[in-house]
Amino acid sequence: MVNKITSLAEYFQKYEESVSNPEKFWGDIAENYKWQKKWDKVLDWKFKGEGAPDVNWFVNGKLNITENIFERNMDTRKDQVAIIWEPNDPKEKEIKLTYGELFDKVKQFANGLKKMGIKKGDRVAIYLPMVPELAIAMLACARIGAIHSIVFAGFSATALADRINDAEAKMLITSDGGFRGTKSIPMKGIVDEALAKSPSVKHSIILQHTNENINLIEGRDVWWHDVIKNAGTDNTAEVMDSEDLLFILYTSGSTGKPKGVVHTTAGYMVYTEYTFKNVFQYTDGDVYWCTADIGWVTGHSYIVYGPLLAGATTVMFEGVPTWPDAGRFWDVVDKYKINQFYTAPTAIRALVAQGDEWVNSHDLSSLKVLGTVGEPINEEAWRWYHDLVGKGKCPIVDTWWQTETGGIMISPLAGLTPTKPSFATLPLPGVQPILVDPEGNELKGNGVEGILCIKFPWPGMLRTTYGDHKRCYQTYFSAFPGLYLTGDGAKRDEEGYYRIIGRIDDVINVSGHRIGTAEVEDAINQHPKVVESAVVGYPHEIKGAGIYAYVICEDLTDEEMENIENEIRATVTKFIGPIAKPDKIQIVSGLPKTRSGKIMRRILRKIGEGDATNLGDTSTLLDPGVVEEIINGAKVNI
Ligand code: 6R9
């Protein structure tokens, strides 16, 4: 079993070892796994030059990640609960699956997939609500060497089709619908619309979950329960190379369509288990709950892979934090005696707004560790979480990482690293952060602020962007040759602690979800009356950042003017999904552009923040008059 660091001194020692001899450090950890064939070399890498990035961990090793979840844990954990599923409706019964039961279900579904012609290397898209079958589907893919590409169930038909098409997925696994609070959300209509535009998908497997009345399309759609009928539980894991693709997960960047971030088998496996155990200080018998959706990377790494590799008991929740009431999270914590609880700052802020009573009326004494992820946590929310939820006795692990990093990069180790509100604190062993100025010069020493990069590979890092390796280089490795660019700004304080400030690119972090401004603009521009638009983020009390859209329209009648905001929101919902809907829309007659036609977002951001006092140099603008008009329309302080 993978060792856990148990003191701060040991952390510093391990960190030192991991930097002075990374191959020995990760090689020793990798010894704990079940390999069909051991690796020849721990690491082979380059961040620059022809074909870069080229990163290979555990070179020529052969393994299957599910053998390391199941076969490796089976002797000791067959009857231990692996997954607890808490349904949306608290009146309904939970589901508990032991490692033995989960293993059987994974093998059975894996056999079903095989029977339907899915084989090693095929891409399988998964579009499911937070049900146990989501974890079963991903593990079954991994078992047979198929590459899963999970699409968050809140995305629209267009967004789903784009992702399916980019990955050329052969199959889609989905359900009739999902539950969220009082709502039963039908999914089959969205799926049918998406599949009409996705010729690569030959079959779709549909889970019966909400019992919505749906039509199956003959020859294409099959019920999940029919797939596993007679499928049997005899299944030998496919032998995978260390660097064979495990999954693709799409994420937004500053430009263009979402990128398919690619993670591979061995490095991701080693990294997610190691970080899970160390950051959360998970101990055998603990019950761990991460409230993320598996449609995002947090759910991949810290609901499914990390915890299950570690032999943990992990909770999955289908519902929302505020239904039936704002005490739901704490009901669940009490119900299962949760020991480690991991959520997002946006959820914390939403609950702060509901008042302390919801927390105080529940028994939260089982809690040992509290975690946050997804966006910077403000000090007020941190204190509320620490003092009220954790009663001052639970360390908070503010974990900074990204879809691209695969696992947690900068974070306290619970109970070992002294914490400070809003600081992600120190890098994990094996992680070598560096701060640079815009010219790429390293900012040495402490008390500095700059662009956060990583200068050495870690096992969980992305290997490429699916189907477009050049784009991976362009996006992450070209700004500062030899460094991985995170896209975040950060400060290293006098003690050497890192505080993440936020994105330095055109990505808006809305409720912890990454939204590319270009994507939202593209969606808005689909409205027939829209000529052009510019989207920026602005501070939002609950969401962290809200979406502010400045839109130029063709001449509108009074009636059209009245409806335009709603129509624009509906257009964005259609092309991306409700998470990308602008919070504020301002119809303008022009946008501040430079003479070369570039929109000066800096100005729009300031106005969006409600501060037009210091707009900087506007002399290069093509038409400085538009700025005044926008300021007047935005009703901000001048
Ligand atoms: C895991 C995840 C990544 C972006 C990242 C940063 C922000 C994540 C954070 C944080 C401050 C933290 N972010 N964790 N900012 N403190 N603890 O969220 O992945 O969806 O790819 O987002 O989220 O801006 O660059 P992803």
Task: Describe the fold and architecture.
The strands form eight sheets. An eight-stranded mixed β-sheet has the order 12-11-8-6-7-14-15-23, sandwiched between helices. It is built from 20 helices and 30 strands. The radius of gyration is 24 Å and the shape is globular. The chain has two domains: 436 residues, 3-Layer(aba) Sandwich (Rossmann fold), CATH 3.40.50.12780; 123 residues, 2-Layer Sandwich (GMP Synthetase, Chain A, domain 3), CATH 3.30.300.30. The chain is α/β, with parallel strands linked by helices. The chain binds ligand 6R9. Ligand 6R9 binds next to α11, β20, β24 and β25. This is Acetate--CoA ligase. It is an enzyme of class 6 (ligase).
Unique bound compounds = ligand 6R9
Number of domains: 2
The backbone outline, from C-alpha atoms, is globular
Helix content: 25-40%
**Biggest pleated-sheet summary:** 8 strands, mixed
Low-confidence stretches: none
What is the level-2 CATH architecture name of the largest domain? 3-Layer(aba) Sandwich
What's the oligomerization state?
Answer: single chain
Distance between the termini: 61 Å
Order the strands across the largest sheet as they lie in space. Answer: 12-11-8-6-7-14-15-23
Mean pLDDT: 96
How many helices? The count is 20
- The CATH first-level class of the largest domain comes to Alpha Beta
Here the CATH topology of the largest domain equals Rossmann fold
Per DSSP E runs of 2 or more residues, the count of β-strands stands at 30
CATH homologous superfamily grouping of the largest domain: ANL, N-terminal domain
Strand-pairing-aware structural class: alpha/beta
Radius of gyration based on Cα positions: 24 Å
Kindly estimate the percentage of residues that lie in beta strands according to DSSP.
15-25%
Pfam family, one: AMP-binding_C
Keywords: Acetylation, ATP-binding, Ligase, Nucleotide-binding
GO biological process, one term: acetyl-CoA biosynthetic process from acetate
EC number: 6.2.1.1
